[in-house]
What does this fold into?
Amino acid sequence: MKKATKILIGLMIVAFTVTSAFAAIEKPDNYKKGKYLYKKNCKTCHVKSASDKTMGQWERIYKKGEHRGGAEAWEKLDEKELHQIFFYLYEHARDSAQPETCG
It folds into this structure.
């Protein structure tokens, strides 16, 4: 296989990987509601802000679907609401383009 072909295949794999990662973190409908839901349901126990974690840390927490405070905290929220909260936290994480400056 020619070197140019190998490079092209490598670039295609990288492009696919990057676009797949962004597709997994899709902007939910009414995504601005995430901040409201976070303040209403999470802020009482979690007094820190979204910028206390990186985007990758928020993504791992969300994908695991595990809440250290117990499953019952997440059970009262439907999947759409959880995704809205996650998107808010992800978009305002420490390493995001718009890190949250205050809670």
User: Anything to note?
Assistant: The CA atoms of residues 71 and 82 lie 12 Å apart. The helical segments are 3-24, 33-41, 55-64, 72-75, 79-91.
